[in-house]
Amino acid sequence: MKNKVKITRIEQKMTQEQLARRVRVTRQTIGLIEKGAYNPTLQLCAAIAIALGKTLDDLFWEVD
Questions:
Q1: pTM of the complete model beyond 0.85
Q2: Which tens digit of pLDDT belongs to each residue from 16-38?
Q3: Which of 64, 14, 17, 59 is closest to 40 using CA atoms?
Q4: Contact 30, 20 (CB under 8 A)
Q5: In degrees rounded to 5, what are phi and psi of residue 55?
Q6: In the chain, at which end, N or C, are there fewer CB atoms within 10 A of the end residue's CB?
Q7: How far apart are CA 36 and CA 12, in angstroms?
Q8: Where are the alpha helices (DSSP H) in 1-64?
């Protein structure tokens, strides 16, 4: 899954560990989501969006 989690997280000067703690997953899970190697649940996507102050569309919607 292509997403903008890493770019947004870095713009906010947040580490993978900090984001992981906020959404209650491991740092490794955040890393896999950022690489597109893990397909998170809708609940986890929503938690990440809230933690980063973005919408689901901002982070996960693919626009050609």
A1: yes
A2: 999 999 999 999 999 999 999 99
A3: 59
A4: yes
A5: -95, 165
A6: C
A7: 20
A8: 5-11, 16-23, 27-35, 42-52, 56-60
Q: Please state, in angstroms and rounded to a whole number, the distance separating the CA atoms of residues 64 and 20.
A: 29
Of 11, 7, 5, 10, give the one whose Cα is nearest residue 25: 5
Q: Which residue has the tokens 């901002």?
A: 58
- CA dist list (Å): 44 to 22, 64: 11, 24
Q: Which of 57, 27, 30, 58 is nearest to 44 (CA)?
A: 30
Two tokens at 46? 């929503």
End-to-end Cα, the chain, rounded Å: 14
